[in-house]
């Protein structure tokens, strides 16, 4: 479960597919990550003494800090959460709220481990699900009058309709005709002929997820979950296609086939040993000179975060988790503040510092074209939906990159985010009229870029508003 299949070099190579440049930062995160797997291969006694070296990424806005962290988590499939440190400076937050990030990490981990357990029993679960589908599609003959059992009475008293339902199912009579029909439906099902047929199934009520910032969250407890674990989940009937229903049923059956306590303890272990918490906007909690009134003291927030980063026990609904070996990646632009404005203890917990570079025009060209789902590829695909074939000349892309670079340096440097605003403006007309063109080719040339964007960039005020 905890074996590391990727070396730092491979991690960097994978990151290269999404993030342009920033080699130093990529190397640093790859090493920080790999070190944790190194540690896990040591004798346990020694493991305990090796605390992870947390990392701080410093660099201007929009140059790939968050992107690196986001991709990293996917590449190594470690539990990963991202929080904004500024969230803790908002009015109404109390010290214990910072623990929420650890709880969120455990939630993510539980979900990951659950999926793995479920995929292992999927074969059996889908057999069961298909059996259920057959019964739903060809119900047995229901008997109107039957004696009320003790259970029915209880169910009627507590108003638990679900219980009733189950009993009904049990009391169905399966006649020979029903059996024959079920056989034929079973065969049709397996051939995939009934995927669009509608069935009504019983499922857990989907409750909206309680965010960390609500009343209960502030108490450090998740009341909904606490109650949810005590009371049986409310069941609701929903009608959907066989295809959708099968997935729901497979999950229900999988859930019966796995041991949830194993999942929880595995998940806690995994979060403890491989979890990554990415704290964005870290510079905003450094005590700068700007301080808005009503804001929670920034130093106070740092003091709240400190124990978690230093290693402490946090109570979650799945059990206690120790944060000793969780990897923390702090990130911030540190434009108005410096890392040295942080309290000393916190600085000490982030010994690895990497600086990200400002992006050049050449970087922009690469960002536009190289990554797997680069902006240009996204637009080509989007416009392609209307059967309009969009292409960009090399010169046009060059021009877009140049404009982005210029605007960043004359108005405000927002890094690669500038590309998004420029492309949106550039393709406004195309996006609008493509559906009515009914096929065709559009080539974006340098001239087109100049025509649409050139005028705007000539006027600084206009640029500020539009690009
Ligand atoms: N080096 C890069 N390679 C590829 N894409 C990038 C790069 N830098 C930024 N981007 C793109 O720009 C957008 C913003 O980048 P990101 O979220 O990483 O900024 P950031 O460095 O975290 O900035 P902030 O300090 O404002 O949080 C993302 O959509 C990302 O895809
Ligand atoms: Mg960011």
Automatic annotation (TrEMBL):
<dbReference type="InterPro" id="IPR004491">
    <property type="entry name" value="HslU"/>
</dbReference>
<dbReference type="GO" id="GO:0036402">
    <property type="term" value="F:proteasome-activating activity"/>
</dbReference>
<protein>
    <recommendedName>
        <fullName>ATP-dependent protease ATPase subunit HslU</fullName>
    </recommendedName>
</protein>
<dbReference type="GO" id="GO:0016887">
    <property type="term" value="F:ATP hydrolysis activity"/>
</dbReference>
<feature type="binding site">
    <location>
        <position position="417"/>
    </location>
    <ligand>
        <name>ATP</name>
    </ligand>
</feature>
<keyword id="KW-0067">ATP-binding</keyword>
<keyword id="KW-0143">Chaperone</keyword>
<dbReference type="GO" id="GO:0008233">
    <property type="term" value="F:peptidase activity"/>
</dbReference>
<comment type="subunit">
    <text>A double ring-shaped homohexamer of HslV is capped on each side by a ring-shaped HslU homohexamer. The assembly of the HslU/HslV complex is dependent on binding of ATP.</text>
</comment>
<dbReference type="GO" id="GO:0009376">
    <property type="term" value="C:HslUV protease complex"/>
</dbReference>
<comment type="function">
    <text>ATPase subunit of a proteasome-like degradation complex; this subunit has chaperone activity. The binding of ATP and its subsequent hydrolysis by HslU are essential for unfolding of protein substrates subsequently hydrolyzed by HslV. HslU recognizes the N-terminal part of its protein substrates and unfolds these before they are guided to HslV for hydrolysis.</text>
</comment>
<keyword id="KW-0963">Cytoplasm</keyword>
<dbReference type="InterPro" id="IPR019489">
    <property type="entry name" value="Clp_ATPase_C"/>
</dbReference>
<feature type="binding site">
    <location>
        <position position="20"/>
    </location>
    <ligand>
        <name>ATP</name>
    </ligand>
</feature>
<dbReference type="GO" id="GO:0005524">
    <property type="term" value="F:ATP binding"/>
</dbReference>
<dbReference type="InterPro" id="IPR027417">
    <property type="entry name" value="P-loop_NTPase"/>
</dbReference>
<dbReference type="InterPro" id="IPR003593">
    <property type="entry name" value="AAA+_ATPase"/>
</dbReference>
<dbReference type="Pfam" id="PF07724">
    <property type="entry name" value="AAA_2"/>
</dbReference>
<dbReference type="InterPro" id="IPR003959">
    <property type="entry name" value="ATPase_AAA_core"/>
</dbReference>
<dbReference type="GO" id="GO:0043335">
    <property type="term" value="P:protein unfolding"/>
</dbReference>
<feature type="domain" description="AAA+ ATPase">
    <location>
        <begin position="51"/>
        <end position="356"/>
    </location>
</feature>
<feature type="binding site">
    <location>
        <position position="345"/>
    </location>
    <ligand>
        <name>ATP</name>
    </ligand>
</feature>
<dbReference type="Pfam" id="PF00004">
    <property type="entry name" value="AAA"/>
</dbReference>
<keyword id="KW-0547">Nucleotide-binding</keyword>
<comment type="similarity">
    <text>Belongs to the ClpX chaperone family. HslU subfamily.</text>
</comment>
<feature type="binding site">
    <location>
        <position position="280"/>
    </location>
    <ligand>
        <name>ATP</name>
    </ligand>
</feature>
<dbReference type="InterPro" id="IPR050052">
    <property type="entry name" value="ATP-dep_Clp_protease_ClpX"/>
</dbReference>
<feature type="binding site">
    <location>
        <begin position="62"/>
        <end position="67"/>
    </location>
    <ligand>
        <name>ATP</name>
    </ligand>
</feature>
<feature type="domain" description="Clp ATPase C-terminal">
    <location>
        <begin position="359"/>
        <end position="458"/>
    </location>
</feature>
């Amino acid at each position: 479960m905890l074996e590391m299949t990727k070396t730092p070099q491979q991690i960097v190579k994978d990151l290269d597919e999404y993030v342009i440049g920033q080699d130093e930062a990529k190397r640093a995160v790859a090493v920080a990550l790999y070190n944790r797997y190194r540690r896990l291969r040591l004798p346990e006694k020694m493991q305990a003494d090796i605390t992870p070296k947390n990392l701080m990424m410093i660099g201007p806005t929009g140059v790939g800090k968050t992107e690196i962290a986001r991709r990293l988590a996917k590449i190594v499939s470690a539990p990963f959460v991202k929080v904004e440190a500024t969230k803790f400076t908002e009015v109404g937050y109390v010290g214990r709220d910072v623990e929420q990030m650890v709880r969120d990490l455990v939630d993510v981990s539980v979900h990951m481990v659950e999926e793995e357990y479920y995929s292992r029993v999927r074969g059996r679960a889908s057999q069961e699900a298909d059996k259920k589908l057959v019964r739903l599609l060809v119900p047995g003959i229901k008997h109107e009058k039957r004696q009320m059992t003790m259970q029915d009475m209880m169910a009627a008293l507590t108003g638990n309709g679900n219980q009733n339902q189950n009993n009904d199912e049990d009391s169905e009579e399966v006649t020979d005709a029903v059996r024959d029909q079920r056989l034929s439906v079973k065969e049709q099902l397996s051939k995939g002929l009934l995927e669009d047929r509608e069935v009504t199934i019983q499922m857990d009520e989907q409750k909206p997820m309680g965010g960390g910032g609500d009343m209960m969250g502030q108490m450090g407890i998740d009341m909904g979950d606490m109650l949810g674990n005590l009371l049986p989940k409310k069941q609701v009937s929903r009608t959907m296609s066989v295809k959708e229903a099968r997935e729901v049923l497979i999950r229900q059956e999988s859930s019966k086939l796995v041991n949830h306590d194993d999942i929880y303890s595995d998940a806690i272990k995994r979060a403890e040993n491989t979890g990554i918490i990415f704290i964005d906007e870290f510079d905003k909690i450094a005590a700068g000179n700007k301080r808005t009134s009503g804001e929670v003291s920034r130093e106070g927030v740092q003091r709240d975060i400190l124990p978690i980063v230093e290693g402490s026990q946090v109570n979650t609904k799945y059990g206690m988790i120790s944060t000793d070996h969780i990897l923390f990646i702090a990130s911030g632009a540190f434009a108005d503040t410096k890392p040295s404005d942080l309290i000393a203890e916190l600085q000490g917990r982030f010994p690895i510092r990497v600086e990200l570079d400002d992006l050049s025009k050449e970087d922009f060209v690469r960002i536009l074209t190289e990554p797997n789902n680069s902006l240009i590829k996204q637009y080509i695909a989007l416009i392609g939906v209307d059967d309009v074939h969009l292409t960009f000349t090399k010169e046009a892309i060059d021009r877009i990159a140049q404009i982005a670079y210029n605007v960043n340096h004359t108005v405000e440097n927002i890094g690669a985010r500038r590309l998004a605003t420029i492309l949106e403006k550039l393709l406004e007309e195309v996006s609008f009229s493509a559906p009515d063109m009914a096929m065709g080719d559009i080539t974006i040339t340098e001239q087109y870029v100049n025509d649409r964007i050139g005028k705007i960039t000539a006027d600084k005020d206009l640029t500020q508003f539009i690009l």
